[in-house]
């Protein structure tokens, strides 16, 4: 056996939604890299209904079977106090907290004019509020340790666009703002915060409605992208060998992308100021060449996964 120190040796990772899909593969990869893992998963349906302790227990058992250390937590990230308990559990059962992966997620896809308040609230509370809850509870520990690493899962549904996902897109773009703000506020404590926008075949993607031949073809392509492909960059970003912070990375099969962040594209000015008429006559025509099309994620990621 190699005596080489593993990348995350001695670290403790709290991974939310780690009972299934991408989160499960994060848990296994982090354990494989030497980290002790607190496997959090509520075990609900893709829509966030019900509870089941088995997915998290199975992942913890897989980690233990391969010689690693894991604990389980079955609470919901939507609760501020439950998030605090997750952090306390990592400290008391695993001896510390160095890494937080905000991965738990649900979907309530529905076309915007039919979206209910409940569809909106439930998705925002798992993704955006949940990422805040777990990050905020961990921030106290990270500040005290003068070290720590956050990974937050975002999506091209927010970064680019998709039909029927106004709730999810808003939450996922909110997470980008949350991550950047944490990166700024906590850089003086040596804390890193990055986003990953994954593409992987999981039950969540399996719930995408197939309405036509085009979406059927797209889903067939998605099936070739396995969930374990997302973990290597997450492990790398959370290791002491990376100082990277405030970035958004995309991962799709064997491709890794650095995603853009908003900057001004073009400016126009008039020394006398603007009227609505001069905006219509001058500003809009002169900026028009830089306008974005109403692209969806699949329009931008238009080539087959590599
Ligand atoms: P998944 O449904 O397989 O896994 C999500 C897990 O989160 C489930 O095990 C679920 O029980 C758990 N969970 C849900 N609500 C929870 C809560 N309140 N508290 C604790 N756990 C909860 O989905 P996945 O595809 O593996 O998605 C993982 C993350 O990646 C999500 O944040 C998702 O939005 C994001 N994402 C995935 C894709 C993709 O292609 N699969 C694309 C973009 C973004």
Query: What characterizes the major β-sheet?
Result: 8 strands, mixed
Unreliable parts: none
Gap between N and C termini: 33 Å
Rounded to an integer in angstroms, the radius of gyration calculated over CA atoms is 21 Å
* Proportion of strand residues: 5-15%
E-strand count: 8
| CATH C-level class | Alpha Beta
Heterogens: nicotinamide-adenine-dinucleotide
In what order do the strands lie side by side in the largest sheet?
3-2-1-4-5-6-7-8
Portion of residues within helices: 40-55%
Which H/E pattern describes the elements? EHEHEHEHEHHEHHHEEHH
Number of helices: 11
CATH architecture: 3-Layer(aba) Sandwich
Described by the principal axes of the CA atoms, the overall outline is globular
């Amino acid at each position: 056996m190699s005596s080489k120190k593993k990348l995350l040796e001695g670290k403790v990772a709290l991974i939310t939604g780690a009972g299934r899909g991408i989160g499960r593969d994060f848990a296994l990869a982090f354990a494989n890299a030497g980290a002790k893992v607190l496997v959090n998963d509520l075990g609900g349906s893709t829509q966030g209904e019900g509870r089941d302790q088995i997915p998290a227990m199975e992942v913890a058992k897989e980690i233990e079977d391969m010689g690693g250390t894991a604990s389980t937590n079955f609470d919901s990230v939507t609760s501020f106090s439950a998030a605090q308990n997750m952090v306390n559990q990592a400290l008391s059962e695993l001896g510390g907290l160095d890494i937080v992966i905000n991965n738990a997620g649900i979907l309530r896809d529905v076309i915007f004019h039919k979206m209910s308040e409940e569809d909106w609230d439930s998705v925002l509370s798992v993704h955006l509020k949940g990422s805040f809850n777990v990050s905020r509870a961990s921030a106290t520990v990270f500040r005290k340790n003068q070290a720590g690493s956050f990974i937050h899962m975002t999506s091209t549904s927010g970064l680019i666009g998709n039909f029927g996902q106004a709730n999810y897109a808003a939450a996922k773009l909110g997470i980008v703002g949350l991550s950047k703000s944490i990166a700024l506020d906590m850089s003086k404590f040596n804390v890193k915060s990055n986003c990953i926008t994954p593409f992987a075949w999981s039950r969540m993607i399996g719930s995408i409605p197939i309405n036509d031949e085009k979406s059927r073809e797209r889903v067939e392509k998605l099936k070739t992208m396995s969930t374990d492909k997302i973990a290597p960059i997450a492990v790398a970003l959370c290791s002491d060998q990376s100082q990277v912070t405030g970035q958004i990375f995309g991962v799709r099969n064997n491709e890794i992308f650095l995603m853009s962040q908003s900057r001004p594209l073009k400016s126009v000015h008039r020394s006398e100021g603007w009227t609505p008429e001069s905006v219509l006559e001058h500003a809009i025509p002169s900026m028009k060449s830089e306008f974005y099309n109403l692209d969806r994620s699949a329009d931008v990621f238009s080539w087959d996964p590599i």
